[in-house]
Amino acid sequence: MNREREVTFSFCGKPIRAFEGDTFGSALFASGQRVFSRSFKYHRPRGLLCCSGNCPNCMMNVDGVPNVRICAEPVREGASVRQQNVWGSLEHDALSVTDKLGGPFTPVGFYYRTMIRPRWAWPLYEKFLRNVAGLGKLDKHAGRKNRYDVEHRRAEVLVIGGGAAGRQSALANAAVGKQVVLVDEGFVEPLEGVEVVAPGRALGIWEGGLVPVDAGRMLYRYRADHIVVATGTVEQPLVFPGNDLVGVMLPDGVRRLIEDWALKPAEKAVVVTVDEAGREAATALRRAGVEINGVYDLRRERVREIVARGSGGILRSVEIDGRKLTCDLLVMSGGRQPAYSLLSQAGARIEYDPERGVFLPTDIPAGIEAVGTVTGDGLAAAVPAASYNGASGKGKCFVCVCEDVTDKDLKRAIAEGFDSIELAKRYTTVTMGPCQGRLCHVPSIRLYARENEKDEATIGTTTSRPPWAPVTLGLLAGRPHEPAQRTSIHHRHKELGARMMWTGTWRRPHSYGDPEAEFLERLYPNRFGDMKPMRIRYGVLNSDAGRIMDDGTIARLDDETFYVTTTSTGAGAVLEWFEWWNAVWGLDAEIVNVTGGLAAVNIAGPRAREVMRRLTDLDISNEGLGYLDAREAQVAGVPSLILRIGFVGELGYELHFPSPYGEHVWNKILEAGEDFGIRPFGLEPQRILRLEKMHILVGQDTDSESNVLEANMSWIAKLDKDDFVGKWSLEHVRDRGLHDMLVGFVMEDGKVPLEGAQIVLEGTHPIGRITSSRWSPELRRAIGMAWVPTELAEEGKSFLVTVDGGFERATVRLRPFFDPDGERLRS
Amino acid sequence: MSFLLDCPNCGPRDVNEFSCAGEVTVRPKSSPSLRELTSYIYFRRNVAGVQREWWYHRQGCEIWFQAERDTRTNEVLLTEVVEPSRRAGTAAE
Fold first, then answer.
1. Contact B85/A583, CB-based, under 8 Å?
2. Which fold, A147-230+338-381?
3. How many CB atoms lie under 10 A from the CB of residue A432?
4. pTM across the whole model
5. CA Rg value for chain B
6. What is the biggest distance separating any 2 CA atoms in chain A, rounded to whole angstroms?
7. A306-335 pLDDT, tens per residue?
8. What is the ipTM of this complex?
9. A568 close contact with B: CB closer than 8 A
10. Can you name the CATH fold of A739-813?
11. How far apart are CA B42 and CA B31, in angstroms?
């Protein structure tokens, strides 16, 4: 602590003076504050207990961040500290009525039994519960102010814990030339040859030597060859009536107040302890001028009963075996329990040591080492705290101060049949609060052992899970980082007022190489080997199970080069698929993904040719560039691949050209088409146009079970080919018979069914579903596509569709609704 | 799941950079019976032990390779590109 440097912050609007080296908690204590929070369920006043960041008693809201353990949080100039979880103030919390009256209404697991009836009252119960549940309140807008980031790091040796053993191990490893990193939750002095990351909290140990370290705004994902766990021990409380009163503290808490922050914790103190820590605290208290009214060392004397009494939640006296001692501080020490959680997560076994009365990690897995007191080293044999008998009936006896779970609650849970520690934990919520069992896990096991007349070894521990301490979701999420891919014409779309939509990763593979024709022959159900150069074919990719994966066009540019397009969202998967078969067959086809480098624009409509004539010197008459022809030429001065294909069923040209020319070509097209009334069209009109032509959308009209035979595309499966992926399965489908078919339909009246609507047999059960459905402005009918049983798949048959809670009639159509012979397409 | 996988091109990387296509299987040579076809498509040995499997470096160099991994411990014993396939490059290379 540096008294030269003053720091001022505010507490509930009041200015508080502090010094550099103070924490918010120590500064508030110095200013006279004793009640730091109200407990979770009963809203009992709570004061400083551990001063180590382990318990929940000092949690407050600092600068909008809830649940900050201010006993460990260094002071900051100008910070605003506020209480939380109270209706009123820390001194007078209206919700403490649950403490006085709540008992019968809030026994363990009360939420499983109460507030269920009357059912109509649930919305009221819910509103009330949501307001009183939890501890801190989240500021909905705070998230955006904080910036988090992630760094991936390597360490030869990662030491977790900067205490004596951790520092020693770090220095020893550095001395033999290892690259050592040491992390600690608090502050650590610099160490020679060691990289110290502090504060840096190791959240857990995952396979592959992965240890994520929470350093506030940075998450360091460490991969370590060797992990040294030196996490030390956690002081344990004793369980007796009144053990949660303000003024009851653990030895470390007392020591810190005196030695770190030069504070006198009280006027009169009593000490009850099972180890040296209590005696050391007594010595420190005497030095600080506190009167010691009694020291009870449970190693030397048996005590049957401890009862702490107070008024208004503040400690006034303690009764030891009936003898009353006035005090405003009660130091209780229940021993030190090794913090084995990280080791347990890594796969170590946890065993009870009856000698020392603690749970210890054993069978440490390879690549991990435990050093220091976490192994039990240096822990003296301690009288297990269960030697005294916490008397019930004389006040609440807290096992878990985080969740307000009393010994009565645990006993009741056992009586109700929750007789294993894992069940009892889930029913009572003991160890499930902010301390995550640091202070209450072992006391709960001891109580369980006593009540079930077993020993602690038999009861065992519950599973340790990461994170070791609470971590903000923002830190885990990292930087807001969603790669968005925009076409090079994006800005023009925005200028024209277009609404944009996501279409996956938008990449299109381009395939060329020597055995390419063979490659495509094997992958697609139709033929490509016999394609002439500069011709295009439609292709549907199947899995070996005969299911439709994707569709697209394949243009043969020359003997060795094919240009393949896919659906926008399918491109990544198709590339993966192509590459895999390439590897499996060892065909050595060269596959290059050119999507990112190209832009593509579609010009469609009866006057498309006239527009193109103004943009290119290429012969684009119907003879020069016919339907399904491909040409390479300059369009608007830009070298382009022109594909005459017709997803939307019109005379149309798809231009594929280098992406940087995107806006230029776009502008030139609009210019060239202005007197023809050209208009940009987006995905929605495209969907309607393609539907009028009954062109499928893979993934919408088909799903993971659909095959080309049932999807009304049997023409594409050339089953007389030698072998292609999916051939055998399609043969089996053909042999067993088709069950369902994809058909088109028109609605008799104008109602447009929802996509996904069910198709029903007259008055009975669902037999099919609508996959695409739109109002066609051209035909002035409601049209769509649907899966129906084969018996219904005939032109003119009808079925019922669910629409608006009722049923409407639809008629089957098997040929495209618009221009079924494709005259427009081929014009 | 956070083990490391040694990509033949890129070296040890987080497993989440890859996608796994499962056990290496043997595709029937020709005209399988329905039973053989179903076995090939759906059934896997699913050993509790060392398994040979396909991996794709999705967030990296995009090559396919095979690995031998112990499914009980996630220890990866080896990774290799299986000849005679070449390593396919991307437009960027």
1. yes
2. FAD/NAD(P)-binding domain (3.50.50)
3. 17
4. 0.80
5. 15
6. 112
7. 999 999 999 999 999 889 999 999 999 999
8. 0.87
9. no
10. Elongation Factor Tu (Ef-tu); domain 3 (2.40.30)
11. 17
